[in-house]
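Schema walk-through. Below, the input block comes first and the output block second. Nothing else is stored per chain. Lengths vary across the set, and this one has 500 residues.
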Amino acid sequence: MTRPARTSIDILEEAVHLLRAAPAETAATYLIGAAPLTLGFLFFLADMNRSLYAFEHLPWASLGLAVLYVWKNAWQALFMARLYHQLSPSEAPAKSPWQAILMQSALQPLGLVVPLPFPWITAFFRNVALYAALGRPDALAAARRQSVYATRQNWGVLTIVTLGALLLFANVLVSIALLPQLARSFLGIEGDLARLGMGILNLTTFGVAAAITWLAVDPLLDAVYVLRCFYGESVATGADLRAALKRAVLVFLFVITAAHAQTIDEKKLDHAIDQVVHQREFTWRAPRPAGAEPQGKWVGWYRASVKWLGETWDWIWQKIEDWLRPPKESGGSDKEVQVNRKAMLALTAFLVALIAAGVVVYFLRRKKVAVIAAQAVAAAPAVNLADESLTADRLPESEWLSLADEWMEKGDFRLALRAMYLAALNYLSAKDLISIRRWKSGLDYRRELARRARSKPELPLAFTRGVAIFEQGWYGRHVVDRAMAESLANGFKEMRSYGQ
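--- output ---
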């Protein structure tokens, strides 16, 4: 009589225990293959999505990602073989990894092409990785045979894992979106991610959430299909019974050896038990010992108060019961008594609801004294335009332009250039086209604007021409005159027209 196949929950639970019992070397085997592919995928996704020259190096980037995919699958096969060795120590991994590498290179890319969500297809590709790493000569036949083992269990596992992966993906995505805002609210840390707001939910963020979800789900599926192969073969070979018998023999030998190695000292054992039961986490559960209770003035007052409160509560509850209990009449029937009791209970509930509604209405209609706060007039902070550490977010764009006009009237066109440049940066930051940082140079801002304003190619060109005029006047040795200042002002006006 064969044992029925384990349920989906059972096999998932055993897979979790198998992963937890795996040594660090086994986990490192998986990470050696998965970490480079994950980082390469995220870099490829961000580069293809944001780089202006992505299509120029697309073939080489795709080739590199394919190589990392084969690398990951080869190490994944070794990872599954190590997990199988935990279940059946007599089944060691293959001495040469070339069979696993060739098998993974030839077959695993087909798993990306096959669009059918049939569970036996998923099982086949993972089974063939395991048997190739084990060095089985009939890896394809064994993988195909075990892929149809306990199909209902396979359906259940994939359904549960898919739902769990979707929930994990949503949680990771929400965490990525909320953590910068929480850091700004509670810690006062305001970085680029916090400034993005809801703009943080872009393709790169979705890729990061998907990669984290995959790193959590993929080894669990590996452990599931390792267990399925082990139990599927055990139907014919009895390998699971031999492994359980070996563990039982080892435990029995360990107990016998430990019992003969030392004798139990009863006094030390009693002392250890007494120490444990007197610890704080256990004393509150133990009943009070029988005997004389503590005496004293405050103890007597406490007991009298507790007794008085208990008697008062019993008296109130008894009055309520007497009031609700209808008087027994000689000619009345039990049905009339039940009707009277229901009517009293309904009346009581109505009165309680009426009192609660009155309290709610009272608090809602209370007139609150409005406190009218005087409008605070914030004085414009004094800025030193000659300070190199001054950033454009110190003042709004209109005040930077006012400063530029003021220095133009005073005849200091160099400071007017600086004020107009900071006004332009503030304008672009308000449009979410750049993020203002103290360490950024004009070249950094030009590159960032070119990356973010792809739909408006004239805008980065106009900004680049303006930055060239500003840097020539601010950093160069040329004399800054009114013509240069007006040229910069006209250039930034043109830039703003393109940004509308």
